[in-house]
Predict the 3D structure of the following.
Amino acid sequence: MTTIICVQGDITGQHVDAIVNAANSSLLGGGGVDGAIHRAGGPEILAACRALRASHYGKGLPTGRAVATPAGRLPARWVIHTVGPVYSQEEDRSELLASCHRESLRVADELGARTVAFPAISTGIFRWPMEDAARIAVETVRAAETNVEEVRFVLFDERAYEAFSVQVR
Protein backbone atom coordinates (compact mmCIF):
# COMPACT_ATOMS: atom_id res chain seq x y z
CA MET A 1 0.00 0.00 0.00
CA THR A 2 1.22 3.45 -0.92
CA THR A 3 1.68 5.97 1.87
CA ILE A 4 0.44 9.44 0.90
CA ILE A 5 1.75 12.52 2.69
CA CYS A 6 1.59 16.28 2.17
CA VAL A 7 4.35 18.78 2.77
CA GLN A 8 4.46 22.50 2.21
CA GLY A 9 7.60 23.58 0.42
CA ASP A 10 9.69 23.59 -2.73
CA ILE A 11 9.48 20.43 -4.83
CA THR A 12 12.98 21.00 -6.22
CA GLY A 13 14.48 20.32 -2.77
CA GLN A 14 12.80 16.94 -2.24
CA HIS A 15 15.07 13.93 -1.65
CA VAL A 16 12.98 11.33 -3.49
CA ASP A 17 13.56 8.88 -6.32
CA ALA A 18 11.44 10.90 -8.76
CA ILE A 19 9.98 14.40 -8.90
CA VAL A 20 6.92 14.92 -11.08
CA ASN A 21 7.06 18.01 -13.26
CA ALA A 22 3.86 19.77 -14.27
CA ALA A 23 5.31 20.29 -17.73
CA ASN A 24 4.05 22.03 -20.81
CA SER A 25 3.69 19.89 -23.92
CA SER A 26 6.87 21.26 -25.50
CA LEU A 27 8.94 19.71 -22.65
CA LEU A 28 11.28 22.69 -23.02
CA GLY A 29 10.61 24.44 -19.73
CA GLY A 30 8.16 27.18 -18.85
CA GLY A 31 6.85 28.96 -15.80
CA GLY A 32 5.75 27.77 -12.37
CA VAL A 33 6.85 24.30 -11.28
CA ASP A 34 8.17 23.52 -14.77
CA GLY A 35 10.49 26.53 -14.82
CA ALA A 36 11.66 25.91 -11.24
CA ILE A 37 12.54 22.28 -12.01
CA HIS A 38 14.44 23.20 -15.18
CA ARG A 39 16.33 26.01 -13.40
CA ALA A 40 17.25 23.92 -10.35
CA GLY A 41 18.03 20.76 -12.34
CA GLY A 42 20.22 22.50 -14.86
CA PRO A 43 20.96 21.90 -18.54
CA GLU A 44 20.91 18.08 -18.33
CA ILE A 45 17.10 18.09 -18.01
CA LEU A 46 16.63 20.39 -20.99
CA ALA A 47 19.07 18.33 -23.08
CA ALA A 48 17.16 15.13 -22.25
CA CYS A 49 13.84 16.85 -23.09
CA ARG A 50 15.23 18.06 -26.41
CA ALA A 51 16.31 14.49 -27.19
CA LEU A 52 12.77 13.26 -26.44
CA ARG A 53 11.36 15.92 -28.77
CA ALA A 54 13.81 14.87 -31.50
CA SER A 55 12.88 11.19 -31.18
CA HIS A 56 9.45 10.21 -29.83
CA TYR A 57 7.63 13.46 -29.12
CA GLY A 58 8.19 15.70 -32.15
CA LYS A 59 4.76 17.27 -31.68
CA GLY A 60 5.17 17.47 -27.91
CA LEU A 61 4.00 15.30 -25.03
CA PRO A 62 0.23 14.77 -25.13
CA THR A 63 -1.92 15.92 -22.20
CA GLY A 64 -2.29 13.19 -19.57
CA ARG A 65 0.86 11.30 -20.61
CA ALA A 66 4.18 11.09 -18.76
CA VAL A 67 7.83 10.55 -19.64
CA ALA A 68 11.04 10.53 -17.57
CA THR A 69 14.42 12.20 -17.82
CA PRO A 70 17.45 12.28 -15.51
CA ALA A 71 17.10 14.85 -12.72
CA GLY A 72 20.33 16.75 -13.34
CA ARG A 73 21.36 18.67 -10.21
CA LEU A 74 18.12 17.95 -8.33
CA PRO A 75 18.33 15.70 -5.22
CA ALA A 76 16.26 13.07 -7.06
CA ARG A 77 17.24 10.46 -9.64
CA TRP A 78 14.58 11.26 -12.21
CA VAL A 79 12.08 13.87 -13.30
CA ILE A 80 8.78 12.52 -14.58
CA HIS A 81 7.26 15.11 -16.90
CA THR A 82 3.47 15.11 -17.29
CA VAL A 83 1.22 17.56 -19.10
CA GLY A 84 -1.87 18.54 -17.16
CA PRO A 85 -5.07 19.73 -18.76
CA VAL A 86 -6.25 23.33 -18.84
CA TYR A 87 -9.40 23.65 -16.71
CA SER A 88 -12.65 24.15 -18.59
CA GLN A 89 -16.14 24.80 -17.25
CA GLU A 90 -17.62 23.66 -20.57
CA GLU A 91 -15.80 20.31 -20.84
CA ASP A 92 -15.02 17.74 -18.13
CA ARG A 93 -11.29 17.10 -18.38
CA SER A 94 -10.90 15.38 -15.00
CA GLU A 95 -9.96 12.06 -16.62
CA LEU A 96 -6.96 13.78 -18.21
CA LEU A 97 -5.89 15.13 -14.80
CA ALA A 98 -6.30 11.66 -13.27
CA SER A 99 -4.28 10.23 -16.16
CA CYS A 100 -1.36 12.53 -15.30
CA HIS A 101 -1.13 10.87 -11.88
CA ARG A 102 -1.67 7.30 -13.14
CA GLU A 103 0.82 7.70 -15.98
CA SER A 104 3.41 9.28 -13.67
CA LEU A 105 3.10 6.31 -11.30
CA ARG A 106 3.35 3.88 -14.25
CA VAL A 107 6.58 5.56 -15.36
CA ALA A 108 7.84 5.54 -11.76
CA ASP A 109 7.21 1.78 -11.64
CA GLU A 110 9.14 1.30 -14.90
CA LEU A 111 12.06 3.20 -13.36
CA GLY A 112 11.89 1.29 -10.07
CA ALA A 113 11.16 4.50 -8.14
CA ARG A 114 9.79 3.94 -4.64
CA THR A 115 9.35 7.56 -3.56
CA VAL A 116 7.68 10.16 -5.78
CA ALA A 117 6.97 13.86 -5.18
CA PHE A 118 4.02 15.43 -7.01
CA PRO A 119 3.09 19.11 -7.32
CA ALA A 120 -0.51 20.31 -7.57
CA ILE A 121 -0.80 19.59 -11.31
CA SER A 122 -2.85 22.05 -13.43
CA THR A 123 -3.62 24.40 -10.51
CA GLY A 124 -1.36 27.25 -11.61
CA ILE A 125 -1.65 28.88 -15.01
CA PHE A 126 -4.04 26.06 -16.10
CA ARG A 127 -6.53 27.34 -13.45
CA TRP A 128 -7.83 24.00 -12.14
CA PRO A 129 -9.72 24.67 -8.87
CA MET A 130 -7.40 23.59 -6.03
CA GLU A 131 -9.92 21.55 -4.01
CA ASP A 132 -11.06 19.60 -7.08
CA ALA A 133 -7.47 18.99 -8.24
CA ALA A 134 -6.59 17.70 -4.77
CA ARG A 135 -9.58 15.34 -4.74
CA ILE A 136 -8.75 13.93 -8.19
CA ALA A 137 -5.04 13.58 -7.40
CA VAL A 138 -5.49 11.80 -4.07
CA GLU A 139 -8.30 9.51 -5.27
CA THR A 140 -6.25 8.52 -8.33
CA VAL A 141 -3.12 7.77 -6.32
CA ARG A 142 -5.12 5.75 -3.78
CA ALA A 143 -6.71 3.66 -6.55
CA ALA A 144 -3.51 3.09 -8.52
CA GLU A 145 -1.83 -0.27 -8.62
CA THR A 146 1.78 0.72 -8.09
CA ASN A 147 4.99 -0.36 -6.41
CA VAL A 148 5.64 3.22 -5.30
CA GLU A 149 5.84 3.15 -1.50
CA GLU A 150 5.46 6.88 -0.80
CA VAL A 151 3.71 9.61 -2.73
CA ARG A 152 4.53 13.01 -1.37
CA PHE A 153 2.37 15.93 -2.50
CA VAL A 154 4.64 18.96 -2.24
CA LEU A 155 2.52 22.09 -2.10
CA PHE A 156 3.97 25.54 -2.54
CA ASP A 157 1.57 27.53 -0.37
CA GLU A 158 -0.73 27.13 2.63
CA ARG A 159 -3.93 27.06 0.54
CA ALA A 160 -2.72 24.16 -1.60
CA TYR A 161 -1.33 22.35 1.44
CA GLU A 162 -4.70 22.60 3.22
CA ALA A 163 -6.68 21.45 0.16
CA PHE A 164 -4.52 18.35 -0.27
CA SER A 165 -4.27 17.61 3.45
CA VAL A 166 -8.07 17.44 3.73
CA GLN A 167 -8.12 14.78 1.00
CA VAL A 168 -5.26 12.73 2.49
CA ARG A 169 -6.83 12.52 5.98
